[in-house]
């Protein structure tokens, strides 16, 4: 699945530190804004380093979930009453969906909130570095597949294209890699990540 299997530790390279510096300036969305919103959610953008290169972890949602069936996303979900913050929501959902232990996540910070274009869901994204040894396991009720994409592939224009969606077959920008299609809000979060990392010399 292209997932971390080696004994490498999360790198403290210039890319990670640049990302940390940039995201630390963003004020996280307050819990109250999304806690009582039926369309509010938080997600974790998991990052690990392997072979000297950063990789980003994605999931493909199960075909039987309530929304965005079969689409590529980041681990995440709706706010639970036990979540003190939206970061807590993102970390809890990542543990439930792909077995990431919250205590092992080096949280880098928050991205600005975003909304899906098709369903109007408001999402609070957070980025975090996970150990490369993390044994990711999909929750079959919510996740069909877990996969990771190296930073170089996300940047590579050869993997850029369009995805047709909806009854009128509208075309949306997309990354096509390894048989997976990254588009919509997930692509926008990815491009925000790349914009920060591309500023590193």
End-to-end separation: 30 Å
- CATH class (first level) name: Alpha Beta
- Going by CATH, the architecture would be Alpha-Beta Complex
Count of discrete alpha- or pi-helical segments spanning 4 or more residues: 5
Structure classification: alpha+beta
Tell me the number of structural domains.
Answer: 1
The CATH homologous superfamily corresponds to Nucleoside Triphosphate Pyrophosphohydrolase
Binned strand content: 25-35%
Q: Give the SSE string.
A: HHEEEEHEEEEHEEEH
Q: Would you kindly provide a written description of the structure presented here, covering whatever features stand out?
A:
With 201 residues, the protein is α+β, with helices and mostly antiparallel strands. It is 23% helix and 32% strand. It has a single domain, classed as Nucleoside Triphosphate Pyrophosphohydrolase (Alpha-Beta Complex), CATH 3.90.79. The strands form 2 sheets. Strands 1, 2, 3, 4, 5, 6, 7 and 8 form an 8-stranded mixed β-sheet that branches. Strand 10 and strand 11 form a beta hairpin. The protein starts with 13 loop residues before the first helix and ends with a helix.
Topology:
Elements: H1 14-23, H2 31-35, E1 40-50, E2 53-61, E3 72-73, E4 76-77, H3 86-98, E5 106-110, E6 114-115, E7 122-129, E8 143-150, H4 151-155, E9 160-165, E10 170-177, E11 180-183, H5 184-197
Parallel strand pairs: 1-7
Antiparallel strand pairs: 1-2, 1-4, 2-3, 2-8, 5-7, 6-7, 9-10, 10-11
């Amino acid at each position: 699945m292209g997932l971390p299997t080696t004994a490498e530790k999360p790198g403290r390279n210039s890319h990670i530190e640049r990302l940390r510096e940039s995201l630390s300036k963003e004020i996280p969305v307050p819990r109250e804004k999304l806690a009582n919103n039926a369309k509010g959610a938080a997600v974790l953008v998991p990052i690990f380093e392997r072979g000297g290169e950063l990789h980003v972890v994605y999931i493909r949602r199960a075909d039987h979930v309530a929304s965005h069936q079969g689409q590529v996303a980041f681990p995440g979900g709706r706010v639970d009453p036990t979540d003190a913050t939206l970061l807590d929501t993102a970390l809890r959902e990542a543990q439930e969906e792909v077995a990431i232990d919250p205590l092992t996540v080096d949280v880098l910070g928050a991205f600005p909130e975003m909304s899906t274009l098709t369903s109007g869901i408001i999402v609070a994204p957070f980025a975090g570095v996970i150990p490369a040894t993390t044994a990711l396991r999909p929750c079959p009720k919510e996740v069909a597949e877990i996969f990771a994409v190296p930073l170089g592939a996300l940047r590579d224009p050869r993997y850029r294209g369009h995805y047709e969606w909806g009854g009128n077959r509208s075309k949306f920008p997309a990354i096509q890699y390894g048989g997976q299609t990254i588009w919509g809000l997930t692509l926008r979060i990815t491009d925000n990540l790349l914009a920060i990392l591309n500023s590193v010399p």
